[in-house]
Design a protein that fits this description.
This protein has one domain. The chain contains 2 helices and 8 strands; from the N terminus they run E-E-E-H-E-E-E-H-E-E. It has helices spanning 34-38, 75-82, and strands at residues 7-15, 24-26, 31-32, 41-44, 54-61, 66-74, 86-99, 105-119. Strands 1, 2, 3, 4, 5, 6, 7 and 8 form an 8-stranded mixed beta sheet that branches. Strand 7 and strand 8 (105-119) form a beta hairpin. It is globular and about 50 Å long.
Length: 136
């Protein structure tokens, strides 16, 4: 991370227990994070050509289906998340899942590859205290 930029600590919470409009949920403990945490950079919009905007310091998957991600990221990105204009979007490879009768999928096993910060469409940019994230 570049030293001339100001970084702050932030925590985002994503609820992966509800399939939502994407029709996907992630079972607690399904994603392995060990490899990602060895180089846990946070990217802006998953663009690998731009420098990282921060680093993930901790990831916790609760039995309640919520994923808590602690990051140290550039202040401008942290403020955009807190204002509801951006969200953290984990990218992962699903290795095992169950397709349910209602057409939804529950991911049971996978590897976390990246965390990108993504802008929300203007109509969705509201601060509701919780990051909806993406299911992958």
């Amino acid at each position: 991370m570049e030293s001339d930029r100001e970084y702050i600590d932030i925590e985002v919470v994503m609820d992966w227990s509800d399939p939502g409009p994407e029709g996907m949920s992630v079972r607690p403990g399904a994603l392995k994070v060990d490899e990602y945490m060895k180089n846990s950079v946070v990217l802006s919009s998953f663009d690998v050509r731009t420098p990282p905007v921060g680093k993930t310091t901790e990831i916790e998957f609760g039995e309640d289906g919520k994923c808590r991600i602690k990051m140290k990221i550039e202040r401008t990105y942290a403020e955009a998340i807190l204002e509801g204009a951006m969200f953290a979007n984990p990218g992962f490879i699903a290795k095992k899942w169950t397709e349910k009768d209602d057409g939804t999928k529950e991911y049971e096993e996978g590897d976390l590859l990246s965390i990108g910060l993504v802008a929300k469409p203007p109509a969705e940019s509201q601060d509701n205290g919780e990051d909806p994230g993406s299911k992958g």
